[in-house]
Amino acid sequence: MSSVPKTMRAARLVEYNKKYQIHEVDVPQYGENDLLVKIGAAGFCHTDYQVYEGFYQSQTPQVGSHEPAGTVVAVGSKAAKSFKEGQRVGVLLFRHACHECVGCKTTRDIRFCEKKEMAGVTSDGAFAEYMIADADNTVLLPETIPFEQAAPLMCAGATVWGGISKLGLPAGESVGILGIGGLGGLGVQFCKALGYSTVAIDNRPEGRDLATEFPLKADLVIDYNDEKAGEKIVEWSGKGGLAGIVVCTDNVQAIEWSLKTLRPHGICVPLGVPGEGFHFGSFDLIGKEIIVKGSGVANRSEVEEMMKVVASHGVKSYVRTVPFEKTPDLPEMYMDNHLKGRLVMKF
């Protein structure tokens, strides 16, 4: 094992709606199928803000963030079959499936385990110098992807990649991405890399700018506040509307509106988790036989495929990095209406 100290710095949520506090705590102990990862960068996303607000009633004190990338510094005995010290890795948020519950037995997928840990939500996460990673839910990083770019891929990227995959559409079809922030900015690039005609929709100029920030640009950018936004999208797409749309916001009204952009048998994948639930217009849903698909974060094998696309097509996040010492400011920074892209803590 590499030289690892006994204690580390960690940014912890001690009280809901109060700034993270930086504490000196013990370096976590890893199990036989775990990795100890030295954090290089860790992202702050909407779920982190919901944890901060108390939406998930997470136990406190707790180390925040579930978007980590870093270097393996210690390996459990079972994990050593797949990993070794010195490897650069990205860590997905789920850890330690029980292998006994109905979810585990019927799906063999940690995402559906009833007793799983969720880094930064139900257990300590990545706003620390070190964290525990489950070897079964960790991926190797291509050398070309720096930690500050890899971190957002572990939640924002994995979530929108999973949503696009749920569409199941062939290349050449028309796809919409509604909400161009941390998820949507990556979603536009993924859609273009996969060969889709892509429309980006957002109500903020920062979001609309992000849709054309990188070489993989949206084919059409629409202001959600435009009264004729739906009509323009349907006319542009042809065939009566989009084949599919991935919704990267938890705004209930926007999610409902998204169905109006779809053709008959079109597919909507909402990725936001509104506390008040969803509301869909019955005539849109039933009259056009729209399909609404649930989608969470992608699984490990899907994320490995995503990494190949990121590396081969140069997919990037618009990142604003902050040093560890500024981690307590992240919730306030996140609520800036003019925020563009992703907030990432970088050591």
Automatic annotation (TrEMBL):
Protein's UniProt keywords contain Ribosomal protein: no
SMART domains the UniProt entry points to: PKS_ER
CDD domains: CAD3
Keyword annotations of the record: Metal-binding, Oxidoreductase, Zinc
A cellular component annotation (GO) from this entry: cytoplasm
Domain called Enoyl reductase (ER): residue spans: 23-345
Gene Ontology MF terms in the entry: alcohol dehydrogenase (NAD+) activity; metal ion binding
SUPFAM superfamilies: GroES-like, NAD(P)-binding Rossmann-fold domains
Keyword Coiled coil in annotation: no
Necessary cofactors: Zn(2+)
Annotated family: Belongs to the zinc-containing alcohol dehydrogenase family.
Protein name (record): Alcohol dehydrogenase GroES-like domain-containing protein
Species in which this protein is naturally found: Aureobasidium pullulans
